[in-house]
Amino acid sequence: MSTEADATAVSMCRRLSRSLMPLLLGMLLFVLYIATQAVLKCQATTESRGSLGIRKLSGIPGNGVIRNLGGISENEVIQEHAENAASKPLKAFLVILIPTGPKYVWRRNTLRETWFKLADDNVLQRFVIGMKSLDKDAQEQLIQENKEHGDLVFLWDFNDSYGGLAAKVLLTFKWLDENVDFKYVLKTDDDTFVRTDRLQKELKERNVQSKLFWGFFSGKSPVYREGIYEEKDWFLCDTYLPYAFGGGYILSTDLAHFIASNAHWLKPYKSEDVSMGAWLSPLDVLRVHDPRFNSEHESRGCMDEYLINHKVYDEGMKAQYKQVIETGRLCPKEVLKRRSYIYNWDVPPSQCCNRTWGII
């Protein structure tokens, strides 16, 4: 009788152990999972407060990458950005950067005598010059020019040339990011008339705090294979990626910060505007196409609505400034030389830009 009872008990124990084993194993795995997640969270918090979290991604409030790292709130990012801004020597609502050649003092003086005067104290205007290849006399002349006007930025380790313009823009944005607390930056040329008064007013009215890329865009420009614009290294597409023409385009501070922080990863192509379009192409950017930016390499004419008017030289610059001061309008005589277009963002880039008359 005892032997039969013992056998029954052993059988029941075996059945019980078989039924409990999966449960015990599941509990063990669950404990291991909780412990692993705790370790990973601790590591992520440590990393996010180091070079990966704050230094690489600061200045982009609310960035999902920062939040996913753990341990960093949006307020902390904004506070860190504010602390960095407080340490910068210059501050402006709008910064205007103008890459220029060392010898073009007459162009710089024309801008100083005309539309530079339209800006108030919230606008910072700077010419940018590469100094490396210049002899001592040329450098001294530029230093003296800067003592007189205080509006030159010297890139001491850069050789000025058209082929190096994209690299120059990268270095310029690095200078900007390190030295100026700003909201927006306009990159333009020394043969462009800028309505700084109207631009500043409209930027305040738009109040787009981030991701702004504002200019006159092209999405189907053919790749140059010869001439001064020749691109030997372009292989991304059979046309250029959508970009804003270099006569003038505006970026918000976060995009400028992205360019400066990642300059060592970004490939400079022959044209700086094409390069900027490629650099920003994968980002979640608000691209604003505006026909009031007459910023192409060939002028469309002169219309009073223009905020940016490219390919304007000495006497034309002075005539337009006189018109603005006396009448508030830009053009001594309005004229349209070429057709314009409204960019269609709902179709492939090859179909984006159909020119027609009736658009400024």
Write a short abstract of this structure.
The chain is an alpha/beta fold. Helix content is 43%, strand content 17%. β1 (90-99), α5 and β2 (123-130) form a beta-alpha-beta unit.
Write the layout of secondary structure elements.
Elements: H1 2-48, H2 51-57, H3 64-69, H4 74-86, E1 90-99, H5 105-113, E2 123-130, H6 136-149, E3 152-155, H7 165-179, E4 180-188, E5 192-194, H8 196-206, E6 212-215, E7 217-218, E8 243-244, E9 248-252, H9 253-261, H10 272-280, E10 286-289, E11 293-294, E12 301-302, E13 308-310, H11 314-327, E14 335-336
Parallel strand pairs: 1-2, 1-4, 2-3, 6-10, 11-13
Antiparallel strand pairs: 4-9, 5-13, 6-9, 7-8, 12-14
Helix pairs in contact: 7-9, 7-10
Our Rg estimate from Cα atoms comes to 29 Å
Number of strands: 14
Helix content: 40-55%
| Helix/sheet category | alpha/beta
Q: Helix and strand succession?
A: HHHHEHEHEHEEHEEEEHHEEEEHE
Largest sheet: 7 strands, mixed
Your description of this structure?
Belongs to the glycosyltransferase 31 family. It is an enzyme of class 2 (transferase). This protein has helices at residues 2-48, 51-57, 64-69, 74-86, 105-113, 136-149, 165-179, 196-206, 253-261, 272-280, 314-327, and strands at residues 90-99, 123-130, 152-155, 180-188, 192-194, 212-215, 217-218, 243-244, 248-252, 286-289, 293-294, 301-302, 308-310, 335-336. By secondary structure, the chain is α/β, with parallel strands linked by helices. The protein folds into two domains: 31-87, no CATH class; 92-351, Spore Coat Polysaccharide Biosynthesis Protein SpsA, Chain A. Strand 2 (123-130), helix 6 (136-149) and strand 3 (152-155) form a beta-alpha-beta unit. The longest helix is centred in the N-terminal third of the chain and has 47 residues, at 2-48. Residues 38-74 have low confidence and may be disordered.
